[in-house]
Amino acid sequence: MIPIQSAINKVTADALTASEFAAWPQRYVTGLEITEDDQGNPIEPFKVAVDKLLQAEDPQAKFGQFEAASLSNYCDLVGLLLQHLSSISRTPSYYFLVNGGPPPSGEAIISSEAGLVAKVRERMLYFGESWEQVIRLCFAIKGDKRAKEFAMETVWRDPEYRTEAQHIDALLKLQQLNVPEEQLWSDAGYTPSQISTFRAMRKEDAKAAAEIQKLGPKPEQAGPAAGNAPSEAKAARMAHKPPQGNSGNASRKIHEMK
């Protein structure tokens, strides 16, 4: 990317030079006699200003103006170089304000930043180990025993752009995979001190719920009512009662015939 950046710097310098010497309209006049001073130097015939009027008595005199040099060619070339720089560096083009137009939508931002996010995750893998070495060196200078803590891990912020609703929805899906709550809190962006406060608040909530449960009304024990329970004698009579229907009538008639 350095050669492309050098080309951008060169084109920008050319544009500044052109704006200094050729970006103003150049006026001219023909058919006008130029007078000279005592030393033979030409005398400027007009002092051009906003409140000045150009006048020539010679009928052959003509006034005109050359067009100013356009700087748009330099801008187009810089824009083209920026597009190459964006493609090679995997940086979204709207970061450089190239092509103008309306701002991209949420889905377009996620799609255009895919290459940049992949590059950032790659840097996180190697820079994380470097920062761990720095922290161990700091502990060694302080004489802290954590200087030999090789299980240290650098925790990076999520580089991917996501809305809060998308982020929380992804965490809820991870909860269904039995991911621990503290890990979910950490992925949600809460600091370790906030997570420690959450644990203390959860304990206080559990204590308050237990106290409310003790002060509340006792649930009634379910059981059959005394008046509705059939007696043993009634249950025995019901057991010896002949079955209803034709089969019962037939058996009663056979008993009477006997």
UniProtKB/TrEMBL annotation:
InterPro entries: Portal_protein_SPP1_Gp6-like (IPR021145)
Pfam families linked to this entry: SPP1_portal (PF05133)
Residue ranges, annotated region (Disordered): 210-258
Protein name listed in UniProt: Uncharacterized protein
Species of origin: Streptomyces eurocidicus (Streptoverticillium eurocidicus)
